[in-house]
Design brief:
The chain has helices spanning about 50-65, 85-100; strands spanning about 1-15, 25-40, 110-120, 120-125. The protein is α+β, with helices and mostly antiparallel strands. The chain has one domain (about 1-125): 6-pyruvoyl tetrahydropterin synthase/QueD (Tetrahydropterin Synthase, Chain A), CATH 3.30.479.10. It has a four-stranded antiparallel sheet with strand order 1-2-3-4, with helices on one face. Helix 1 packs across helix 2. The longest helix has 16 residues, at about 85-100. The radius of gyration is 16 Å and the shape is elongated. The two termini are about 15 Å apart.
C-alpha cells in the first residue's frame, strides 16, 4: 500500500452560530490542510498520483474557500452543513476530494483530511472501511 500526503493552507473567517464564547464573533484563521491519499498500484511512471495532480485538484477546492466568510458559503450558510468548524471543514473537503478522485482509472482513495485552525488545534475526517 502507498500513501501520499500534501499540505496547503488558506485564509478565511468564520463565526460559530449558537456558541457561547468568543468564537461566536467573526474571526479569522490561516487554516492548514493536510490531504492523505492511498492506493495499491502505481502508474507507469512509478507514481500513485502525480503530486502536481493532487495539489491541483485540492487547490481548486481551496480557492473556493480562500479569503471568504465561511458562514456565507453554501455548504455552511444557514447551518446547512453545520458550523464551519475544523471538524466540518475536514469532512467537507474530504467529500469534495473523494468525488474528484473517483474518476481515476486505477483505485486510489482519499484516506484522511486534517484541518488545523492553529498549530495547536486540528481536526480530521476519514471514513471507516
Amino acid at each position: 500500500m502507498y500513501e501520499l500526503m500534501i499540505r496547503t493552507n488558506f485564509a478565511a473567517a468564520h463565526s460559530l452560530r449558537d456558541y457561547n464564547g468568543p468564537c461566536a464573533r467573526l474571526h479569522g484563521h490561516t487554516w492548514q490542510v493536510e490531504v492523505v491519499l492511498t492506493g495499491r498500484q502505481l502508474d507507469s511512471y512509478g507514481m500513485l498520483v502525480d503530486f502536481r495532480e493532487l495539489k491541483s485538484r485540492t487547490k481548486k477546492i481551496i480557492e473556493e474557500l480562500d479569503h471568504q466568510d465561511l458562514n456565507a458559503l453554501e455548504p455552511f450558510a444557514h447551518n446547512n452543513g453545520g458550523n464551519p468548524t475544523a471538524e466540518n471543514l475536514s469532512r467537507y473537503l474530504f467529500e469534495r476530494l473523494k468525488a474528484k478522485f473517483s474518476s481515476l482509472q486505477r483505485e486510489v482513495k482519499i484516506t484522511l483530511v486534517r484541518v488545523c485552525e492553529s498549530p495547536e488545534a486540528c481536526a480530521a475526517y476519514w471514513e471507516e472501511d
